[in-house]
Amino acid sequence: MKTRQWLLESRPTAEITRDNFTMVERDIGEPDMAKGQILVKHQIFACAPAMRGWMQADRPSFVPGIDPGDPIITLGGAKVIRSSNPAYPEGARIFCVGAWQEYQVLDPSVTECRVIEDDLSLADALGIYSMNALTAYFGLLKVGEPKEGETLVVSGAAGSTGSIVVQIGKILGLRVIGIAGGAEKCGWVLNDYGADAVIDYKSENVAERLAALCPKRIDIFFDNVGGDILQAAVDNIAQYGRIILCGQISGYDADRPAPGPRDMMQLVYGSVRMQGFLLHDYASEFDKGRADLRSWIDSGRIKHREDIRPGFEKVPETYAALFHGENRGSLLALIDDEALRKPGA
Ligand SMILES: NC(=O)c1ccc[n+]([C@@H]2O[C@H](COP(=O)([O-])OP(=O)(O)OC[C@H]3O[C@@H](n4cnc5c(N)ncnc54)[C@H](OP(=O)(O)O)[C@@H]3O)[C@@H](O)[C@H]2O)c1
């Protein structure tokens, strides 16, 4: 069985580009049915900012890392096309940890594979019902420990994860301030996602605006960005505040990580808790998270944008858009239009 596959050609040193990748055609063999292996056709890939760090040897990573010559590990949506494994029958649509290639042999006993619900398209499963929605849910509820009436500030507020944090914050009765880049995205945060106020970090002084908007300071800061925006939030954090470190995207596509806050004594004097987390810390509670999100989405209380870009040949360019703020919602690379359809539709 042959497939086209993207490999890492060279490690990105600063901004990631198409030249860091090369496309090859290679033989992937056949699934070993006796071991329960399956052959899948990838239909859609999620573009996760963390993958940028997996390609860089000097950054901490929660996966083994991608070296030059390796396939590009990704979260994807795929259709099972050859199988005798009853848990993953032919025709099943799965969420999986795969690679940037069209076909792949997977062993579900060692690789995460999850059959998705019948009423969802693969684009839904990787969009509105994605891991990012769960990240928003667990980060805010478990790490943030929100209480009704508190002030929540969210960076990356127009993005896949941040937009859900904003909306869960409103559902929980918080006062929510979003930070995003540019007038259009700030408009979504305010008008579509329901924030009480928004700061355009590209045209406004974030620290000054936070001070003006939060006279009683910030109770919870959900940070997707790091760097100067984290510093501005630290400068305005309330006593007993919580800083949720979800990501540091401002430093991912650069030759060095985003800097940490200048003066940690702010956190000492304020008895502030700053805590990082990984979604998988809460794996045992995913069913509850999915059920809550599903009920909020089905009742129209959570809205979502997807930015779906077609073309296997363009996957690297699609991915790089994340780091220029060009994505307009959850960024997905579409390989096969079938990913857009619900079964039977
Ligand atoms: N801890 C976890 O388990 C976990 C799980 C999932 C995601 N995450 C983290 O969540 C964050 C958001 O990921 P996502 O998938 O939801 O992406 P996203 O927010 O949909 O897209 C990335 C956005 O980041 C913003 N951005 C890019 N470069 C920036 C910079 N230099 N300064 C400020 N903002 C910048 C851009 O928005 P603007 O146009 O507004 O600048 C861009 O659209 C990332 O940090 C990611 O690593 C963490």
Topology:
Blueprint: E1 2-8, E2 21-27, E3 38-46, H1 51-54, E4 73-82, E5 93-99, E6 103-106, E7 113-115, H2 122-126, H3 131-143, E8 151-155, H4 160-171, E9 175-180, H5 183-192, E10 197-200, H6 206-213, E11 218-223, H7 227-234, E12 237-245, H8 265-269, E13 273-276, H9 286-298, E14 306-310, H10 315-320, E15 330-334
Parallel strand pairs: 8-9, 8-11, 9-10, 11-12, 12-13, 14-15
Antiparallel strand pairs: 1-2, 3-4, 3-6, 3-15, 4-5, 5-7
Helix pairs in contact: 3-4, 3-9, 6-7
Bound molecules: NADP nicotinamide-adenine-dinucleotide phosphate.
Residues 48-50, 132, 135, 156, 158-162, 180-182, 185, 224-225, 246-247, 249-250, 277-279, 322-323, 325, 327, 330 line the site of NADP nicotinamide-adenine-dinucleotide phosphate.
Structure at a glance:
The protein is an alpha/beta fold and 345 residues long. The chain is built from 10 helices and 15 strands.
